[in-house]
Amino acid sequence: MKIVITGATGFIGQNLIQTIQNKNLSVIGTYNNSKPLSKKIRYLKLDISKKNLNYYKYLKKPEVVIHLAWPNLDDFNHKNHLNKTLIEQKYFLTNLIKKGLRNLVVAGTCFEYGKKIGGIKENTKTKPILKYAIAKNNLRIFLFKLKKKYQFNLTWLRFFYIYGYNQNRKTLTNLLIDSSKKKQTLIVNNFIKRDFLSVKKIAKYIYLLSIKKKNLGLVNLCSGKLIYLKSFINILIKKYKIKPIVKYKNTKLRSHESNNFYGNNSKLSLILNA
User: Fold this and answer.
1) pLDDT tens digits, residue range 175-218?
2) Cα–Cα dist 141/94, whole Å
3) Where are the beta strands (DSSP E) in 153-257?
4) Same structural domain for residues 65 and 171?
5) Domain total of the chain
6) The whole model's pTM is what?
7) What is the C-alpha separation between 70 and 7, in angstroms, rounded?
8) Which domain holds residue 120?
9) CA distance 165 to 147
10) Which of these, 206, 97, 90, lies nearest to 152 by C-alpha position?
């Protein structure tokens, strides 16, 4: 099976490469800027803003494309999410499908649901607030409409809160490690509960769902459980053997989040156990 992973140099992409590279598959990873120094898989430079290019042929006619690439993830309200990236993504994915792609797996986000409370199922009505989430939600709607015109399998993955070391973004794990190294105090709201899943498990689930080559539709990638930040931080402290300086306060929630929000993973479990 030939699989292409776009955004292969990103947080999830790097972990997916590690998961998939020894599975007796033909894997191509794409990059935007500097080429990774790896001989285990093939890498291709990919610029989805280019017009008049057969992307399906350029990517060596893959059986499956796992589409993770999306810029400006350090700013979920960056204007480019809607003004530039969404337009380019629509063109790129339409081009792939028109030229012959039959299996597409796309990274979505739990923020598509908006400010919800409790356990969220895939059929929950979306009401995104962030520009990033609005763009992702628009892309999802666009692709599901495209299915009425072209024959292809679509799996749309909604990631919840992913943890793990990420050298490119200020995740909770990174902040704790930095606090431990630099002896700086980290302020955390202990009243917040989240649904966390490790990037290693995320990568494993993406791989298992992708090789099915089925029309799975919307799938929540989550633990299905809530945990207080203080309890979760204690888990990370033991896991990474660090000593961060953490101060707990009842800080204000971000405008797009509630303090009791988690995913229902029953569909994921059903698919994996089928």
Assistant:
1) 999 999 999 999 988 888 899 999 999 999 999 999 999 999 99
2) 13
3) 153-159, 161-163, 185-188, 193-194, 196-198, 217-221, 227-228, 245-248
4) no
5) 2
6) 0.94
7) 7
8) 2-162+196-223+263-272
9) 36
10) 97
